[in-house]
Amino acid sequence: MTASSTAPETNKNLPPVRIEYRTIHGYRRAFRIAGEGPAILLIHGIGDNSSTYDEVIGELARNHTVIAPDLLGHGLSEKPSADYSVAAFANGMRDLLVVLGIPRVTVVGHSLGGGVAMQFCYQFPRFVQRLVLVAAGGVTHDVNPALRLASVPGVATLTRGLRLPGVLPLLSGAAKALARADSIPGIPERLAPRHVITDHQDLLRIISDLADPHAHAAFIRTLRAVVDWRGQTITMLDRAYLTERLPVMVVWGSNDTVIPAHHAQLIAATIPHADLEIFEGAGHFPFRDDPKRFIRLILGFIEKNEALEFDPQNWHELMCAGQQIDEMVGPDDILEEILEAMEEERNVS
């Protein structure tokens, strides 16, 4: 099955962005696509959808084919009772690229999509030319306490209250008021409400979609696959060594209230050759806070880094050797935190 529609154009000089659909394994999957040339795959975060990249797709598509899927259970894609694990999402990215006839891509993953992007590189290295991790999930347990709470059985029932009339406008009004609030006497400036809810507009956009019962159920299934009451349940750190030859860039907002910006330092220590870019003052969505800078970074990263050609022999050697701790680079406290995170995942019960 194939269908398409054209999204409104904001700049007639940019390639049109189309919303298309493919039915794969019986499930209809939606994706945005634009442009021609080497392919860029944009993967969104939990509860979000491909529209989150609206401000950057057109410019990226001037000389590239840009594909931004709605993950299964998100956006305009179907929302079945299915497997919503990171590995299953990576499979879905592979399946879509195969159906579209796209053999190789530069992968850009945000939040949960960053974890999916890393898993995609691990499962399907032949597809991957370059990797960009944006405020990526799956580094250590650290995550916003609200997500930990939402993963607890029983709490999900309470979030169904989002469907009640007046609840979403009330949340929106409260968030806007807090975002304008000055510092509270006796409370450090960094904890002022406007800093704590840096991403309130985007988070409210995502929350509003969860009023749909099918989207809500898919969100809870996805969340529980990656988060429990202790925090994130998986880490990419133990397999980051497989990116030894892969061009990697890490992008984070300094005021990220969902996943700490500190995680960027952990990734950079584990992947020493990675480019690290911090958007000062930005939150969990740096590509929305400063889309022009984000576009420049992505295009510059692609231009300066030759696409990786998969080498089966090198992959074999890396897998046999495993993680080499002495190849990590960074302060002792950072390296100790990385080792603790890896050990914690091995011993978690």
Detailed description of the structure:
It is a single chain. Strands 1-2-3-5-4-6-7-10-11 form a nine-stranded mixed sheet, with helices on both faces. The chain has a two-stranded antiparallel sheet with strand order 8-9. Helix 1 runs parallel beside helix 12 (291-304), helix 2 packs across helix 3 (112-123) and helix 6 (167-180) packs antiparallel against helix 8 (200-209). The N and C termini lie far apart (43 Å). With 349 residues, it is of the alpha/beta class. It has 14 helices and eleven strands. It folds into two domains: 2-143 and 233-347, 3-Layer(aba) Sandwich (Rossmann fold), CATH 3.40.50.1820; 145-228, no CATH class.
Secondary-structure topology with pairs:
Blueprint: E1 2-6, E2 18-24, E3 27-34, E4 39-43, H1 54-60, E5 65-69, H2 86-100, E6 105-110, H3 112-123, E7 128-134, H4 145-151, H5 155-159, H6 167-180, H7 193-196, H8 200-209, H9 213-226, E8 227-228, E9 231-232, E10 248-253, H10 262-270, E11 275-279, H11 286-289, H12 291-304, H13 312-321, H14 332-347
Helix pairs in contact: 1-12, 2-3, 6-8, 10-14
